[in-house]
Amino acid sequence: MATHRREGVERAGEIRLKDTTGRWMILTTVLGSSMAMLDSTVVNVALPRIGRDLDTDLAALQWTVNAYMITLAGLILLGGALGDRFGRRRVFVIGVIWFAVASLACGLAPNDIVLIAARALQGVGGALLTPGSLALIQSGFHPDDRAKAVGLWSGLGGVGAAIGPFVGGWLVDGPGWRWVFFLNVPLALVCVPVALRHVPESRDTSVPEGVRAGADGRRRFDVLGAVLGALALALVTYALI
Predict the structure, then answer these.
(1) Residue 10: enclosing H or E segment and its boundaries?
(2) In this structure, what DSSP letter does residue 201 have?
(3) For residue 32, which of 167, 193, 219 has the smallest C-alpha distance?
(4) pTM score, two decimals?
(5) C-alpha distance from residue 233 to each of 69, 109, 236 (Å)
(6) Burial track 148-185 (b if 16+ CB lie within 10 A, e otherwise)
(7) What's the distance, Cα to Cα, between the start and end of the chain in Å?
């Protein structure tokens, strides 16, 4: 196990886009980031049907969208810092699994309160996987292929975001709005094994200038600041609603 881990670290920064590993990395990072991106847009299509089925008002429907965006935006910097310290692949995989479980909870939600809470948990998962997907590409690919890999990641992710509303409309009119969330589960079942098998682990324990280090010499991340930022966004959104 230790040998395998050392080999994974050594390969980070040396992967070429033409390699099989490079293609698998693009696939899993695009799938992961697309999950988070789709759920920031595709749910809007399902809101009218959600309101009728759950017999909820406009404010609750607004929170169905805002709860996700608040936790995603408030915790995304913390998610990136956790990946740098504890391993980008590890945090990315945890984020994908977290996101899939929260999506399952959204699809099974019996009322608007459970749905809003599950959407907030989805945002936490998105904050873990979104920065990790790009960080894996930046740290994994050879410098000569890094720009192309980032371009592919961005372009394919944009395609996913563009077709999201069409897929959402088809699901809402077909199987039902709950499948907008259930769809993330099979995507995660593909993404996680590919990441564990083909993506090398990487981390960054250096301390940039101006960042305080802990007793072990590693960077410290501001958990309290991230929580307060998310709380401030929540209170401002609540006031506007």
Answers:
(1) helix 2-11
(2) P
(3) 193
(4) 0.82
(5) 9, 24, 5
(6) ebeebbeebbeebbeebeebbeebbeeeebbbbbbbbe
(7) 52
Q: Domain boundaries in the chain?
A: 20-201+217-240
CA distance linking residue 103 with residue 114, whole number of Å: 12
Residue 65 contacts residue 43 (beta carbons within 8 Å): yes
Supply the pLDDT for residue 241. Answer: 67
CATH of 20-201+217-240, one of 3.90.1150.10, 3.20.20.210, 1.20.1250.20, 1.10.540.10: 1.20.1250.20
Angle between helices 112-140 and 58-86 (to 10 degrees): 30
Whole-Å CA distances, 189 to 62, 92, 184, 216: 30, 14, 9, 36
Contact in structure between 137 and 150 (CB atoms under 8 Å): yes
Quote the pLDDT of residue 99.
96
Cα 130 to Cα 72, 84, 134: the distances in Å are: 9, 13, 7
In angstroms, the CA 77 to CA 164 distance is 25
> How far is residue 92's CA from residue 183's CA, in Å, rounded to a whole number?
19
pLDDT at 214: 54
- Which residues does the chain have with pLDDT short of 70? 1-13, 205-221, 241
> What are the pLDDT digits (tens) for 66-86?
889 888 888 887 888 888 888
